[in-house]
Amino acid sequence: MLYLDNSATTKIHPQVKDAMLPYLMEEFGNPSSKYYSVAENAKAAVKEARQSIASLLGCSDSEIIFTSGSTESNNMVIKGVADYYSSKGNHIITTKVEHPSVLETCAYLESKGYEVTYLDVDHYGRVNLEDLNNEIKPTTILVSLIWGNNELGSLNDMGAISKLCEEKNVFLHTDATQVTGKIEIDLSEYPGITFLSCSGHKFHGPKGIGAAFIKQDQYEILTKITPLLHGGGQEQGIRSGTLAVHNIVGMGKAAQIAHNSLRSNLNKLVSLEKKINEILIEKFEGQIHFNNDSKNKIPGVISVQFKGINNELLVKKLAPLMAVSTGSACSSSKPSHVLAAIGLSIDEVRSTIRFSMSSFINEEELDVFKQL
Predict the structure, then answer these.
(1) Nearest of 65, 115, 71, 122 to residue 90 by alpha carbon
(2) What CATH topology corresponds to 14-260?
(3) N vs C: which end of the chain shows fewer Cβ within 10 Å?
């Protein structure tokens, strides 16, 4: 079976597994403990992993806060900003195509009296900069916009968005879960981004570990937010709890691998996507429609309608040949809110399949599409 659901999760890289194993067995110390070797070794391993993730994102290692994943990072940032800056304003701006961990967090804050604006998007799921500019007002305390869409692959113009938020002096958070390790990111080139979320399992690291980038000022002081988890004061007091060293080491190793092979992996994914598109067009021309753009997107993500075919039934029928999905794994029980937001009818939504690739796939394996 060919695995084509890499936007949901990825296979752990063999080097990542090998890097993690010692910290499950021999090097099991708590990095918050002192003096004895297994604690000091764990502390050094966490430091190295933090540096690897910072290198992948183009930021300082002191700006990386470990979490359990992007869902926690998104919750921590949005709720933390809303609470800490409630005296300055109560308005948050996001979009209708965000991940559920952003949308549900915003809905929760609405129930607590916050005002949330949900921006419309174009037919590829991108934000209009003028729309964003028009919605920013004196009470706006946070803009939270996805960098790369998990269903369509569309990239928002984060450079222009970052510049606008910096000019307006408004915090910008981006859910970068789908782009981290897949496209080049250098946060030093995006001074308007104050917060970023990412997850290790989206780029061949382990599940259960993620990170939040929190920008520091010229005095190396992190932007203040209210912690989501209180306790022992780990992670600079922002995210308490004993660090999962084995997972942190795994995410750090995955970040190192992704950073070193970013350009070659990107080129490979572009090539894989091109081949799938060619096969699909040749076999099903007139019976399919691509929802995604062909440019300014995450490489290797394809959203396609098989006209007149129920996507759930198609996924089941394809299961012996390939693993695919109807959309986000985090909202699999509902029709895609992303596809609805870009203007698709319910019938079009229910006929859409997402193929998402990884660099582990060989081009010859895609010949399985010829069996469809």
Answers:
(1) 115
(2) Aspartate Aminotransferase; domain 2 (3.40.640)
(3) N
> How far lies 51's CA from each of 47, 65, 259, 282, 353, in Å?
6, 11, 12, 46, 37
Set 59, 106, 165, 330: catalytic member = 330
Please report the pLDDT score of residue 27 as a whole number: 84
Are the C-beta atoms of 348 and 340 separated by less than 8 Å?
no
Q: How far apart are CA 54 and CA 59, in angstroms?
A: 5
Least-confidence region, from 35-44, 50-59, 117-126, 131-140? 35-44
CA distance 268 to 272: 6
Q: What residue type is 50 in one-letter code?
A: R
CATH number attached to the domain at 2-9+262-371: 3.90.1150.10
CB 311, CB 326: distance < 8 Å:
yes
Catalytic residue at 59?
Answer: no
Give residue limits of the domains in the chain: 2-9+262-371, 14-260
- Please check the confidence at residue 332 and state whether its pLDDT lies above 70: no
Instruction: State pTM to two decimals.
Output: 0.95
Per-residue pLDDT tens digits for 228-280: 999 999 999 999 999 999 999 999 999 999 999 999 999 999 999 999 999 99
